[in-house]
Write the structure tokens for this entry.
Amino acid sequence: MKFSGNQRRVYLLALGLLILAIALVCAWSLWLRPADTAGAGAPTQDWRAEPSAQPYETPAPRDAQTGANAQPQDEARQKVSTIVYYQDNYGYLVPVMCQVPLEDGIAKATLKLMVQSVNNDMQAARLGLRTILPENTRIDLDIANGLARIDLSKEVLDMVDAAAESNMVSAIVQALTEFDTVERVEFLIDGQKRDKLTHGTDVSGTFTRGDINLEAAQPTVSLSASEPVTLYFPADSGAVIVPVTRMVRAGCDVNTAVMELAKGPTNEEMLESVVPAGCGLIGVEVEDGVAKLDFTGEFVNLVQNSDGGRMALKALVLTCTQFEGIDSVEIYVDGQRYDAGDLGVPSFMNVADSIVYDYIQTQSAMIFDFE
């Protein structure tokens, strides 16, 4: 191809601008790379404070200083699993296991993924979720003797309301206490200790890991004679599982948990029911580590879900296997064994790469079914 003098000059100018843009992007990426030194250990296996509640497996052991998965690979190629807390469109907190580059201070790097930015918001949107901390929030973190002291910049004083403030505080505490070196969290705002945020959210004292997405107590439930249980429901997007804490009668076991799960979420416009409409629970038996769930005939309508019932079954498995001594689940319909496909215990309730893959598979199936 031949160029005139003017065309050649325009071409060379465009080429130079392209090279400059690539160089700026590379420099920007290196400049943004977190360089904190607040180390943390492996995410703890406990979902709640009680050691018996373990609905997922811990990622590979991490080095005590770097918080990284111990792997013999070259450091530049290493990835580490970390639990990032997002929120859905209704404000439910959603933990997602993500793979991030190995670096010192993985706890601080995890929190930075929760700050609103172009890249973080795009990653959250791929999962059907949203980031939690305000844009431009700066984070300083020091971890020592089980206490994580986090200093947030003044941007956190501009949250839209008390609900957003409370979600932010809860998400930070949940994310930090995933690490086995963190038991308590203390907040500073712009280097100063405060009692409350702008809309009244308490940030005084220290925080320990609490119940996630706590439902409002039902009038018929006496708080003095009840205890929390974690139930798992598919989000209305069908892409992620949302953990919800419900207060139930004291001495809760797997039978009670499945009965509560079968009742459905308190707001079905925000979360999806696990069992189909009209389906009842006949009974739950535990034998040799297997929870055997027997439902009425309507259970077979689960396959009519857009994903074939995959997320509902996953929610059932997570709800049952949080109890000590239960390693697997079997489904029965009117007393007969029902082939529900793979009912293996997932490594974690939400895994970023799997969410994206499953979404593509579900959408493809819907397209082909439509045709």
